[in-house]
Specification:
The protein has about 220 residues and is α/β, with parallel strands linked by helices. It has a single domain, classed as Vaccinia Virus protein VP39 (Rossmann fold, 3-Layer(aba) Sandwich), CATH 3.40.50. It has 8 helices and 7 strands, in the order ααβαβααββαβααββ. The site of S-adenosylmethionine has 27 residues, from helix 1, helix 2, helix 3 and strand 2.
Amino acid sequence: MAMRDRATSALARQLGHPRGPLGRLVGRILNRRNAPAVQAAVDALEVRPGAVLADLGFGGGVGLALLLRRLDGVDRSSGSVQGVDVSETMLAAASRRFRSAVASGRLRLHLAPVQALPMADASVDAAITLNTIYFVPDLQAAFREVHRVLRPGGRLVVGLGDPQAMARMAVTRDGFLIRPLDDVVAALGSAGLGVTERRRVGSGEDAVHLLVAARDQAGTG
Ligand SMILES: C[S@@+](CC[C@H](N)C(=O)[O-])C[C@H]1O[C@@H](n2cnc3c(N)ncnc32)[C@H](O)[C@@H]1O
């Protein structure tokens, strides 16, 4: 394999599972690059006082920071944020960066996959997951798990790059599952998470897609 291909493959692996010093650097780059889309996802949650919020695949932690800030803005005394990621490197970095929120119980961090969330049934009011579903093989199983932990009527905002724009990027050829948007919407619907709104963040064909979904009021979907 040529050196350039090896570098592209290494970057793809880091995006799917950041590890070590390079993983920490990737996390910081993701934070800068993805902040506008993550902010728009947090806005779409319409956070209420006392809410339990979650970021599934928090990576460098920009979503955790924005969820904590939003919670502080609506209610400084109650509510909490749950962060879930499969990367030990990202978990360790977030534990350091948010040590006071962790110590106060305002933030809980979990090393777990979105397919097996370590939260109780109907315990989460609203969740975001951005740029993570590309690394989840069984999307319906993952969305069923999100459905389990969301309270009836709770929101999930899924953020993803434009599938066509992503398919043109060299880095996504290695280990990324790029799905048509309609397939993602269908997987959400089959899991009982009906899409109520679609938004774009950014300009041009690269603009990020946000799918705002609400958990059905009863049943398992
Ligand atoms: C490309 S980063 C995105 C991080 C952040 N959400 C953002 O938009 O900047 C993908 C993150 O998802 C995590 N991840 C990958 N597969 C996952 C899974 N099955 N469950 C939870 N997290 C996962 C990775 O460890 C990585 O931190």
